[in-house]
Design a protein that fits this description.
Layout lengths: L1 H8 L11 E5 L9 H18 L3 E4 L13 H9 L6 E8 L5 H14 L4 E6 L6 H8 L4 H6 L1 H13 L18 H4 L12 E5 L2 H10 L3 E3 L8 H11 L11 E9 L3 H19 L9 H6 L4 H11 L3 E3 L1 H15 L3 E5 L5 H14 L6
Length: 365
């Protein structure tokens, strides 16, 4: 699997982009819009990503957030697989402590059978929600246990994906299906290939673990910018060559929005920041329209948060966004930039990816 996995992980930069560009779609739902519309926009963005040479399109697991319709990444990815042919599809990520490893292996084995050779399995250790919702998901209030057991859960999941529990192990006769067992059974013709595993993080824990295991690493710069450079350095310093990679490979998630004029970018950015204010203060809702954000009376503390949040968002005209992305890549040394466009309307998000693709001269077909 080594050569195939490394080839799938390491994308190709197109046009004048310094590194491969990819998409992280939170499938956001704006006020006055529906989840159906948001999911349709996801299809449009995935098709655009495929046509314009973005390397991959990921969705992230979130729960109990009215403005984010991505609670079931595997379901969304199956839908996208039916509407695309080449772009890599994956999770950024599935939150491993929320699920039994066997269930994830079965889901992503199914996705691999639907879209052979173009599925990524990105894994996180956070719940992707608040504590009460995490307790409801996991049917337990012992939430720290799941995070602390992450390395063990990861090892178990990889065993299920590879179908290689040793003889005598309690799970040695259990197989994730679809999966390698179908290719090694008498008469089996199915490929034993399985999706490459990525570790996701916003601090040093997963960075160190990914490096130690020789796995690719994705860092959430878009909401933990102060930790980006230290985490990437820790990943690279910890890296040990593996059957998957012979050298480190790290992407970073970047919040970036390009619009046809700078004023509109600021308006959309204010709306996205108000959405984060409400989320961080326990009032999650639909993404507000720019008009609502402009009329909102921000408290001094909220104003400070908005300024801090937007300082890490690259927004403006296409040329301004390209310059910001180039500078960020140089500063971090990221091997890939995964762009998430936060805006009220799906049309604005779709247009942003078009503008960024044009700014870098990405392929048009």
């Amino acid at each position: 699997m080594a050569a195939d996995a490394a080839e799938e992980i390491r994308g190709t930069a197109h046009g004048t982009a310094p590194v491969p560009l990819s998409v992280l779609d939170l499938v956001t739902v704006g006020a006055g819009r529906t989840a159906t519309e948001a999911l349709r926009t996801g299809v449009d963005i995935a098709r655009l990503a495929e046509a314009r040479g973005f390397h991959r399109y990921w969705v992230a697991e979130h729960h109990s957030m009215p403005g984010v319709a991505s609670s079931s990444p595997a379901v969304i990815l199956a839908h996208l697989a039916a509407h695309t042919e080449r772009v890599r599809l994956g999770s950024g990520g599935v939150m491993l402590p929320n699920h039994a490893p066997l269930v994830i292996a079965e889901q992503f084995g199914t996705l691999e059978a639907m879209a052979p050779g173009r599925v990524d399995l990105g894994l996180g250790r956070a719940p992707g929600t608040d504590g009460a919702t995490a307790a409801a998901l996991r049917r337990t209030d012992r939430l720290n246990e799941g995070a602390d057991d992450f390395p063990q859960q990861l090892a178990e999941l990889i065993r299920f994906l590879d179908d290689d529990f040793p003889d005598g192990h309690p799970y040695s006769r259990i197989h994730a299906v679809p999966g390698p067992v179908q290719g090694t059974s008498p008469g089996g013709v199915q490929s034993t290939h399985r999706p490459p595993v990525w570790l996701l993080g916003s601090s040093g824990f997963s960075a160190r673990l990914a490096g130690t295991l020789g796995l690719p690493f994705a860092f959430a710069h878009h909401f933990s910018a102060q930790n980006t450079v230290p985490a990437l350095e820790l990943y690279r310093d910890s890296f040990r060559p593996s059957a998957v990679l012979d050298a480190p490979y790290a992407l970073i998630g970047v919040s970036a929005l390009a619009t046809d004029d700078e004023k509109e970018a600021r308006r959309q950015g204010l709306a996205a920041a108000l959405n984060m204010v409400r989320l961080r203060t326990g009032r999650p809702g639909l993404v507000p329209a720019p008009e609502e954000a402009e009329a909102y009376d921000f408290s001094p503390m909220e104003e400070e948060f908005v300024q801090s949040w937007n300082a890490n968002v690259i927004h403006g005209t296409a040329d301004e966004v390209r310059t910001g992305l180039d500078d960020l890549q140089k500063r971090t040394g990221a091997d890939e930039l995964m762009i998430t466009a936060n805006a009220h309307g799906g049309d604005v998000r779709l247009r942003s990816y078009e503008l960024i693709a044009d700014a870098y001269g990405l392929p048009t077909a």
